[in-house]
Specification:
Layout: H1 2-38, H2 81-85, H3 100-118, H4 122-145, H5 150-163, H6 173-198, H7 205-218, H8 223-243, H9 256-267, H10 270-273
Helix pairs in contact: 1-3, 1-4, 3-4, 4-5, 4-9, 5-7, 6-7, 7-9, 8-9
Bound molecules: zinc ion (ZN).
Length: about 280
């Protein structure tokens, strides 16, 4: 049974990889088109801004190499195995396949396995799987692009409300609603004060919305542990990068990945953290 959860996890992870890769490209196209529309530029200003086909969404075209666009053979599309069967390179252009692909699949597989091991009822199990899938996608997209799009955080929050109508995860709908408000406005206030002092934005609205969504899922009791753990992780990561001279003091790092990791830690250990 646990193996079943793991296999479902790596297959879902394979789809999450598609979302992580394609969604930023779809967003860039959308923003570019909106920009052209708003500025009232002639239609030919809408030139292709990437090398991908015109029809490009989460399901079309079929998976192809991110570098040379050659369609990937079915055998190499098998989660995890395909990565090793193709000797970690595209079979056509020999460009190395990013390690992120098998990593996301293995991570999703392990998290789903753990959810199966917790042995909750089917609704709780499915809810946790949806939570983990959204959080993983957001972590990787934010880490790579600094985008934390509302196209992800809004459905994430809304599904969180649905799953908690009877307080299945947060312990009560009121817990979720208060969590959602506090999550948004706590970071908003921190950023407002930071902005008054430094005239810069320390965080984006995406971070506010993401923490809001997370607390709708886990409830207000997750607020202090999640903010504490994510700040600790973020600051430690920054210090390590700084000591390795890979980042300057003035440079920013995305905060979403740390919020995401902290939310998974807290959700899966909430019996220790409930305040
Ligand atoms: Zn290729």
């Amino acid at each position: 049974m646990l193996l079943f959860y793991f296999v479902v996890g790596i297959c879902i992870g394979s789809f999450l990889n598609v979302v992580i890769f394609r969604m930023p490209i779809m967003l860039q196209r959308k923003w570019h088109k909106e920009g052209v529309d708003i500025l009232n530029l002639p239609p030919d200003e809408y030139k292709k801004i990437d090398q991908y086909p015109d029809l490009f969404n989460l399901f079309m075209p079929k998976s192809s190499c991110f570098n040379c666009n050659t369609p990937i053979k079915y055998i190499f599309n098998i989660p995890i195995l395909g990565y090793f069967l193709s000797h970690t390179r595209c079979w056509s252009c020999k460009k190395p396949i990013p390690i992120q692909y098998p990593l996301v699949e293995i991570l999703t597989g392990c998290l789903f396995l753990y959810i199966g091991y917790l042995h909750y009822d089917i609704y709780y199990t499915l809810s946790l799987m949806i939570f983990v899938s959204f959080v993983l996608v957001i972590i990787f997209i934010d880490a790579q692009t600094f985008y934390l799009p509302h196209e992800l955080t809004t459905p994430f929050a809304l599904i969180g409300v649905l799953c908690n109508l009877r307080g299945m995860i947060s312990g009560g709908l009121l817990n979720s609603i208060i969590g959602g408000f506090i999550g948004y406005f706590s970071l908003w206030i921190i950023n407002f004060i930071y902005n008054l002092i430094t005239k810069k934005n320390g965080m984006g609205h995406g971070d506010f919305r993401f923490l809001s969504g997370i607390l709708i899922w886990v409830g207000i009791s997750g607020f202090i542990p999640i903010v504490f753990i994510s700040s600790l992780l973020g600051i430690s990561y920054f210090i390590v990068l700084y000591l390795l001279k890979k980042i300057k003091l003035s440079q920013a790092i995305p905060f979403g990945p740390f919020l995401g990791v902290a939310s998974i830690i807290v959700l899966f250990s909430n019996k220790y953290f409930v305040l």
